[in-house]
Amino acid sequence: MRTDPYQVLGVGRQADEAEVKKAFRRLARELHPDVNAHDPGAEEKFKEAASAYEILSDPERRATYDRYGHDGLRTGGQEPDFGAFGSVSDLFDAFFGAGGGGGGGIFGFGGRGPAQGADAQATVEIDLAEAATGVSTEVEIEVVDRCERCSGNGAQPGTPIRTCERCGGAGALRASTRTPFGQVVRQVECDVCAGEGKVPEHPCERCAGRGREVARRSLSVDVPAGIADGQRIRVTGRGHAGEAGAPAGDLYLLVAVRADERFVRDGDDLVTAIDVAAPLAALGTELAAPTLDGDVDVEIEPGTQPGETIILRGRGMSVLQRPGRRGDLRVIVNVVVPRRLTREQRDLTRRLADSITEENLRSDESLLGKLKRALHV
Ligand SMILES: [Zn+2]
Ligand SMILES: [Zn+2]
């Protein structure tokens, strides 16, 4: 069920263009990863807000939506698809210009100075056990960085840097065009010095005078205990280098937690299952259950029924940003009825079956209780 774009942005049906834009700006700021690095729901909410803005900011789409709802947009082939964007940062960049700061866009950050570096992204893959305890790990990243050889000034070390002859050091050129309204003069960036006002006499061999280069960097990162698959870690100032004098962007690390076939994660809890042969479940026994800290013996009470759950307190995941707190491990007892019996086993089982009385089958559990247990609710 798709949500109503008016509701998503919190505006009325009569809201004009300016109100729609204002509402989206406010929401987008709240949901930006700078503010919401640890809220996995923020990305979905941002996409929803972006989708709502796409519809309401376009008069044609808005009219179609008002008359036919989401179905009208679908048949018209006008449904925006934000699934193609890798992350909310990508999506944010697409709307507001990369880096968030320099681009202007509808945020109107304005103020032209040396531009801050753009944000970079990388993925860090860890095991479930590492997610539970937290881990310090090395991440290889590829970022635009200051050239090591020329320290970013673009000149071969020891060679002079001269004032740009084409623009006289201003970094900008005036271009005049004749139009029906008369002569129009515009300022454009100098094509020789790219706005720097200075040109190295001998461009640096390593970066061809650009002052920056793409570099592979190894970065050590502390992944906090309790992190979940798909969450992001923001490392301030470790993104792409900015223009001279401006700070670098941030690095966003997407955490991928490798599946562990022994456990299913349920929030801060873990769930596992152990097999118990039906006769042992009837007699009671002790069995090893896997935990993140190694196997632990658990007591199977005599008469344990299929699907009963044993809770091992504090054997689950660590709780994010709550040091020392851990969830539980729920061990589901999977009572297995023996298959492919030998002749002797068949005889023994037959004798057992013949001896079963009403008393053996009596349970204090109601029918509803049995159903709930079978359905794990
Ligand atoms: Zn260089
Ligand atoms: Zn110039």
Describe the overall structure.
The chain is α+β, with helices and mostly antiparallel strands. The chain is about 25% helix and about 25% strand. It has ten helices and 15 strands. It has helices at about 5-10, 15-30, 40-55, 60-75, 90-95, 130-135, 280-285, 345-355, 360, 365-375; strands spanning about 120-125, 135-145, 160-165, 170-180, 180-190, 200, 210-225, 230-235, 250-255, 265, 270-275, 285-290, 295-300, 310, 330-335. Strands 10-11-15-14 form a four-stranded mixed sheet. The longest helix is centred in the N-terminal third of the chain and has 17 residues, at about 60-75. Bound molecules: zinc ion (2 copies). The site of one zinc ion (ZN) has 8 residues, from loops.
Features:
alpha+beta, 377 residues, binds zinc ion, three-stranded mixed beta sheet
Write the layout of secondary structure elements.
Elements: H1 5-9, H2 17-31, H3 41-56, H4 59-75, H5 88-96, E1 120-126, H6 128-133, E2 135-146, E3 161-163, E4 172-179, E5 182-189, E6 198-200, E7 212-223, E8 232-235, E9 251-257, E10 264-266, E11 269-277, H7 278-283, E12 285-289, E13 296-300, E14 309-312, E15 329-336, H8 343-355, H9 358-361, H10 367-375
Parallel strand pairs: 1-9, 11-15
Antiparallel strand pairs: 2-7, 3-6, 4-5, 8-9, 10-11, 12-13, 14-15
Helix pairs in contact: 2-3
The structure holds zinc ion (2 copies).
One zinc ion binds at residues 164, 166-167, 171, 190, 192-193, 197.
